[in-house]
Amino acid sequence: MAGDEQLVRIDGRRLRLTNLGKVLYPETGTTKGEVIDYYTRIAPLLIPHVVGRPVTRKRWPDGVGTEDDPGMVFFAKDLERGAPSWVRRMPIPHSTGTKEYPLVGDVPTLVYLAQVASLELHVPQWRFAPDGGRGPADRLVLDLDPGPGVGLAECAAVAGWARTILLGMGLEPYPVTSGSKGIHLYTALPPGQSTEQASALANELARAIEADHPDLVVSSMKKTERHGKVLIDWSQNNGSKTTIAPYSLRGRLHPTVAAPRTWEELDDPDLRHLDFTEVLERLDDLGDPMAPLGFHAGGREAESGPLSAYIAKRSADHTPEPVPANPLGATPSDEKPRFVIQEHHATRLHWDFRLEHGGVLVSWAVPRGVPHSYRRNNLAVMTEDHPMEYATFEGTIPAGEYGGGTVTIWDEGRYELEKWRDDEIIATLEGRPGGPLGRVRLALIRTEGEGEKSSWLLHRMKTDADGRLQPDGVVAEPSAQADEPRRGRPVAAARDDRAERPQVSSGSHEAPEPRTETRVNRKFNAVSEGASSGAPPAGLRPMLATSATSATAKQAAQRWGDPAWVEMKWDGIRAVGAWDGERLRLYARSGNEITHRYPELTDVDARLAPQPCVVDGELVALEPDGRPSFPLLQTRMNLERAGDIAREARRTPVRYYLFDILSHDGDDLADLPLSERRDVLEAVAAASIDSLVVPPVFDDVDAALETSARLRLEGVVVKDPTSPYLRGRRSEAWLKVKHTSTQEVVIAGIRPGKGARSGTFGSLLLGIPGADGLQYAGRVGSGFSESMLSTLMRRLTPLRSDENPLVGVPPADARDALWVRPELVGEVEYGEFTPGGILRHPRWRGLRPDKSPAEVRRED
Q1: Interacting residues of 155 by C-beta distance below 8 A, sequence separation 6+
Q2: CB of 807 within 8 A of CB of 813?
Q3: Mean residue pLDDT across the chain
Q4: Would you tell me the crossing angle of helices 550-560 and 701-710 to the nearest 10 degrees?
Q5: With CB atoms 3.0 to 4.6 Å apart as the test, which of 46, 122, 583, 724 could cross-link to 242 if both were Cys?
Q6: 482 burial class (0-12, 13-18, 19+ CB within 10 angstroms)?
Q7: Is the pLDDT of residue 634 over 80?
Q8: Three-point CA angle 664, 668, 671, nearest 5°
Q9: CA 347, 348, 354: angle at the middle one, nearest 5?
Q10: How far does CA 543 lie from the centroid of its chain?
């Protein structure tokens, strides 16, 4: 259903929705579009009950089916590899390996899960702790499950008996008709309860009710004892068990919902389960009957404890922000205290600077972020203390709520405290590996007022705790999305030779002092002169990297010394930039000038250092989540008309990611080691415009690969930090390591081969089953051995057909195709899918005789 596809933007996140007209509930005709609409509208009520909890899903990719022909369903714990990078996830170790569970804290994540047909959302009765481990049980659930011969009315009677006992214990229960058979009964637990304690309490409750009402209640799981009785399933309080989330759809024949109800409703003899349309109708009039349970504050202490201001400013049913499990604050641990810096796009952009102290996060709002130099101080305004749970919070606070806007984590880590007084704090912070903060010593100095809303200065100390000069850091700048690559190299990755770093001023025309004999080599004067005159500069041939495996790259990095030098590989196009002191000109790898195609970089003052220079980098176009996208860049690459260029520049702006410098102020730098060239590059670009970015360097190959994969980038480039710049040459001093994904495909045709392949084929035409049939997914022409070419020809020849089995194959690809019956399944590795569903850079891996075409599904 190609016409049934939409590219939508939700709370700043861009998401592609497909097959919106696909029927997921045949008996009612409910479509995927209606499911997505439901989850979008119910999100304010649902999110408080699931935020912070790992979500296990039940997915029906082809719908729930009918009673005679039920749809395929499977549990999904691990988040799909193709999930957007902005979907938050947390790891949980299993016997089969660690799985990354999605966390639902915003509407875009809910919509994504609905897009992949995750109809049911199941969560445990605990939330993640600030350290990423399993937190205490914060609520108790009793699953009242009717056996044969009884129904909802009997479950409601049992719920009433349980309510009496719980109220006597000081616990307020809230009923939910499960949308399946029975009733779930939830109640908040006092702080500090383990899941084992919660399970034991639920078991005792079940046994007590069974003892009082043995004719209707059973607490044993034995099916032989359940006829005519209601089972009180207490086992779902186990830390490894999950329960259908309140407001989640059910994968039943009808789109029923696990719907919170009032106790008055449970008294109705005609009580029944509600479908999603009925739940939405109740939305405005009734709200959420179990709102007090959504991230409950846990008792009267919330009114006077250190987090009272935080709790008073927030409503659990209106914001996804965490409400503390313990309103008195967390119990301090023996570990170094934590810090987190969050980028907050509220009414005005600012950075929230939070330090763990006394079991809470003492917090300041810093409009300009952490100062990058000791020469400046940034204003910091103290805000209310936040709970430790906030250290992992990212999400969108609804407009109109306190702090409304998007919150993302800029950096986080641990700190070493030197001084904590009412008017002065000094600490050394160390951020996450490869993060923008690095290791830095900071001071907070109070200048006016006391407590909340008092004014402070955030100061970057000139020296570290041992008296050594601290290097400058990264300028805090707003990102398009939380995971967009940021300017600057992490301080943690910097070398120890900065004391001898060349000083390149961005405000003075005085040339830097030459450092070595190679610095005064003037042979590159023609480059800067050519840039000034508009003639194509000579010698603008970029150095090229050699392909390698991750193992080969790691071995090379070990040979080159410790620490390693690893850069991200951006999915863009290479460009050499010539700066004459006033204007930047851009040249493609071929040597052709492309200055006119990127006016946002070349028609403005790029604010590089005043001296002429030549830099090397990559032109990239970014998706809303900050990931470079080659398909997006293609909209810019071949334009020539000024009007078209200007229009696309507004629609798809590009950035120039700089990673090397070839010359500066007439000095040829090519013979300098990469580490020294990098120092000059950072100084030259220190005050540049936002669209010129010097991305970070990583000092660990594995960490860089992991980060690159998590951010869904193209790969990494591992470089020898001592290597010179070899113009126009491919060198093993730069090793590129690409990530690849695999996809099962159906072979639908061949294109005749030429030359050495004239006896076999040039490429295979591939398809992936979709809503409208076998959807064209591109061609693969590489990765075949001679024996595989022969095998495939032998297998495909008997399958020859005059009928094209593909949907959406372009005429150019179909023109000389020889079609085959789509019966063989193979596997390819590839870079990514284009927005049109075509595999980029596919490479053949082999046949999959264990798979039938009907089993092939797109792997995202």
Answers
A1: 144, 145, 146, 182, 183, 230
A2: no
A3: 84
A4: 140
A5: 122
A6: buried
A7: no
A8: 125
A9: 105
A10: 32
| Domain 2-124: which CATH number of 3.40.50.300, 3.90.920.10, 3.40.630.40, 3.40.50.10860 | 3.90.920.10
pLDDT number for residue 326: 61
Q: What's 798's DSSP letter?
A: G
Q: Distance between CA atoms of 25 and 29, rounded to whole angstroms?
A: 6
Looking at the DSSP assignment, which residues form a beta bridge with residue 738?
715
Domain boundaries, the chain: 2-124, 134-241+256-293, 338-460, 495-738, 741-855
Tokens 């709790």 map to which residue?
A: 311
| Burial class of residue 722, CB neighbours in 10 A (0-12, 13-18, 19+) | middle
How would you class 235 by CB atoms within 10 Å of its CB: exposed for 0-12, middle for 13-18, buried for 19 or more?
middle
From residue 137, alpha-carbon distances to 102, 128, 244, 325 in Å are 19, 10, 16, 9
Q: Are 750 and 764 in contact (CB under 8 A)?
A: yes
DSSP 8-state symbol, 760: S
Residue 474 in this model has a pLDDT that exceeds 70: yes
φ/ψ of 356, rounded to 5, equals -70, 130
Q: Which helix (H) or strand (E) holds 13?
A: strand 13-17
Residue 159 parent element (H or E): helix 152-168
* Among the listed residues 657, 674, 668, 665, the one whose alpha carbon sits nearest the alpha carbon of residue 613: 665
Dihedral sign for Cα atoms in the order 478, 482, 484, 487:
positive
Segment 752-776, tens digit of pLDDT? 887 778 788 989 999 999 988 999 9
Instruction: Please state which of the ranges 112-121, 628-637, 851-860 shows the lowest mean pLDDT.
Output: 628-637
- Residues 860, 833: contact at Cβ < 8 Å? yes
Least reliable range by pLDDT among 36-40, 323-327, 584-588: 323-327
pLDDT of residue 484: 36
DSSP letter string over 650-703?
Answer: HHS-EEEEEEEEEEETTEE-TTS-HHHHHHHHHHHTTT--TTEE---EES-HHH
φ and ψ at residue 497, rounded to 5 degrees:
-100, 25
Question: Would you say domain 495-738 falls under CATH 3.30.470.30?
Answer: yes
Kindly tell me the sign of the dihedral angle through the C-alpha atoms of 214, 220, 226, 229: positive
| Portion of the chain with pLDDT greater than 70, in percent | 89
Active-site positions read 569
Cα gap 769→746, rounded to integer Å: 8
Instruction: Please give the Cα distance from 504 to 683 (Å, whole number).
Output: 6
Query: Which tokens in the block code for residue 252?
Result: 């039943």
The DSSP H or E segment spanning 792 is helix 786-796
CB 233 within 8 A of CB 242: no
Backbone angles phi, psi at 36, to 5 degrees: -65, -40
**Is the domain defined by 134-241+256-293 classed in CATH 3.30.450.20?**
no
Beta carbons within 8 Å of 224's beta carbon, 6+ residues apart: none
For the chain, the straight-line distance linking the first and the last C-alpha, in angstroms and rounded, comes to 17
For 68, which DSSP code?
S
Identical fold for domains 134-241+256-293 and 495-738, yes or no, is: no
pLDDT at residue 295, rounded to an integer: 54
Per-residue H/E/C for 82-138: CCCCCCCEEEECCCCCCEEEECCCCHHHHHHHHHCCEEEEEECCEEECCCCCEEEEE
CATH number of 741-855: 2.40.50.140
- CA dist 34 and 21 (Å) reads 9
> Quick one: pLDDT at residue 710?
79
The token duo for 154 is 């009997």
